[in-house]
UniProtKB/TrEMBL annotation:
Tree of life domain: Eukaryota
Pfam families in UniProt: Neur_chan_LBD
GO MF, any single term: extracellular ligand-gated monoatomic ion channel activity
Presence of the UniProt keyword Signal in the record: yes
Alphabetic keyword roster: Receptor, Signal
Protein name: Nicotinic acetylcholine receptor subunit alpha6
Residue ranges of the TM segments: none
Keyword DNA-binding set for record: no
Amino acid sequence: MVRSEQALALLATAFLLFIMPPGSQQGPHEKRLLNNLLGPYNVLERPVANESEPLEVKFGLTLQQIIDVDEKNQILTTNAWLNLQSEH
């Protein structure tokens, strides 16, 4: 009985994944909002009023997972997030 329920759940999941359209579904309003907000954004500019002012950036590292430890070659493979924050 449990096996047939698992098979039915797997079949239902496969069907739902098959009928769902791929990619992101966004409307024209969301696309226009993103273009208005991020369109004039220049990634090369620093977010300061005076260009001669220094920009303080705080950063940190959040360890999510240790994937592998190779003691012989002294290699630690991890999954981590880099956290950046600027005060402007």
